[in-house]
From TrEMBL:
SUPFAM superfamilies: Cytochrome P450
Organism whose genome encodes this protein: Streptomyces akebiae
Gene3D superfamilies assigned: Cytochrome P450
Pfam families linked to this entry: p450
Family the entry assigns: Belongs to the cytochrome P450 family.
Keywords, ordered alphabetically: Heme, Iron, Metal-binding, Monooxygenase, Oxidoreductase
Protein name: Cytochrome P450
């Protein structure tokens, strides 16, 4: 990617909403060179694509924004994984890969982990309140970047001591696939990804030998098949590791982003923060509004499987499109005053932050529960919480997990 294109991609990713607005007002679809895709940003069009998975394949959902250098790809070749995952699969394979994740994230299992999430959330707040100098905390590193990893780690069954390394590996995979980096940095990131994959493989082998009531065991059993007692083949281990790599990124980075953007927008409008503190029963509505207003997962790629026409634009087979959930969430035809953040917004118009149809996010309830725990805790314990004055809040340059890079708070 040349420097000029990189700069334009960076600018687009830090604030994509003006582009979405132009695309919604244009006739047909808008081609975006920075994404090498046709942009789908109207609510009706996004919903149509999501309802037609046979015409719009998910095979390119995780196509890198920036292709790693050959040296970095060579390093990745020494790891585990590289097998199909749920977000890039279609049809029967997608249902096969999705089924154990849906079982592992069932309402009963999510409900069972909520007390642990509340306990860990309280401990993290205790820690930064006790140790914060002058009543100050950087929320992303002290809280938002930690709680979701611990919670998904508990659900999967990881040793808590391994969770920080696994979270780090997920972040490095995201950087490698979605951020331009010098070749030496790419190689270092690839080495971290491979180290994480080997850590996951060790977990898979240990859990296969000693099954538990956890999501990790569920995923292993789904791959091992009826002969669960037999030793896993190398290919089966690769498949489970790929499952876990995808689940880790989806299970903690998205929720981390959602916590950061939710707190940011609540504190930017003091009236809404104070309303939430006074009326905590509004927390579920605040969660939905935050997810709609500044969507953590801005969108996914799709590719046409045959010639199709969408919004009057003819797309040959093999055409890449970028499905902007965040663009649909700011569509005035479904959400009046879409650019206003309003936790008192009347309910009824469902947003697309967690997808729709066959690819609806199976972890959406887990994310909502962690955000609910977070807002209940912060509004009750730190009602005087506010943004530190003078800070320049910069959004992370990514469309995959949009959030503040740093969020300095005072109380």
């Amino acid at each position: 990617m040349d420097a000029d294109l990189h700069d334009r991609l960076d600018e687009l990713q830090r604030d994509p909403y003006p582009l979405y607005a132009r695309a919604r007002s244009a006739e047909g679809l808008t081609y975006v060179p920075e994404l090498d895709s046709w942009l789908v940003a109207r609510d009706a069009d996004v919903r149509e694509v999501l309802r037609r998975p046979e015409d719009f394949s998910s095979a390119n959902a995780l196509r890198p924004d920036v292709m790693p250098a050959p040296a970095a790809l060579a390093v990745l070749g020494g790891g585990f994984g590289g097998r199909p995952v749920v977000v890039t699969a279609d049809g029967a394979l997608h249902q096969e890969l999705r089924a154990p994740i849906v079982r592992g994230l069932s309402p009963a299992r999510v409900g069972a982990v909520v007390p642990y999430a509340a306990e860990r959330a309280a401990a993290l707040v205790d820690d930064f309140v006790k140790n914060g100098e002058g009543g100050r905390v950087e929320l992303m590193s002290a809280y938002a970047g930690r709680l979701p990893g611990e919670v998904i780690g508990r659900l999967v069954g990881f040793d808590p001591d391994d969770v920080p390394a696994l979270v780090h590996g997920g972040r490095r995979a995201e950087q490698l696939l979605f951020r331009p980096m010098a070749e030496a940095e790419q190689i270092a990131a690839a080495e971290d990804v491979v180290a994480t994959a080997h850590l996951l493989d060790a977990f898979v082998r240990a859990r296969h030998a000693d099954p538990r009531e956890d999501l990790g065991t569920e995923l292993i059993a789904s791959v091992a098949g009826p002969d669960a007692a037999a030793e896993l083949t190398l290919d089966q281990r690769h498949q489970v590791v790929a499952h876990l790599q995808n689940l880790l990124i989806a299970g903690h980075l998205t929720t981390t982003a959602l916590i950061g953007t939710t707190v940011l927008h609540l504190l930017r409008d003091r009236r809404q923060w104070e309303l939430l503190c006074a009326e905590p029963e509004r927390i579920p509505a605040a969660i939905e509004e935050a997810a709609r207003y500044d969507t953590a997962l801005q969108g996914f790629r799709r590719v046409t499987t045959r010639p199709v026409t969408l919004a009057g634009t003819e797309l040959p087979a093999g055409t890449p499109v970028f499905l902007a959930f965040a663009g649909a969430n700011r569509d005035a035809s479904r959400h009046p005053r879409p650019d206003d953040f309003d936790i008192a917004r009347p309910s009824g118009s469902r947003h697309l932050s967690f997808g729709l149809g066959t690819h609806t996010c199976p972890g959406s309830q887990l994310a909502r529960e962690q955000l609910r725990v977070t807002l209940e805790l912060l509004t009750s314990r730190l009602p005087g919480l506010r943004l530190a004055e003078g800070q320049r809040i910069t959004m992370r340059p990514t469309l995959i997990h949009r959030s503040p890079e740093r969020l300095e708070l005072l109380w």
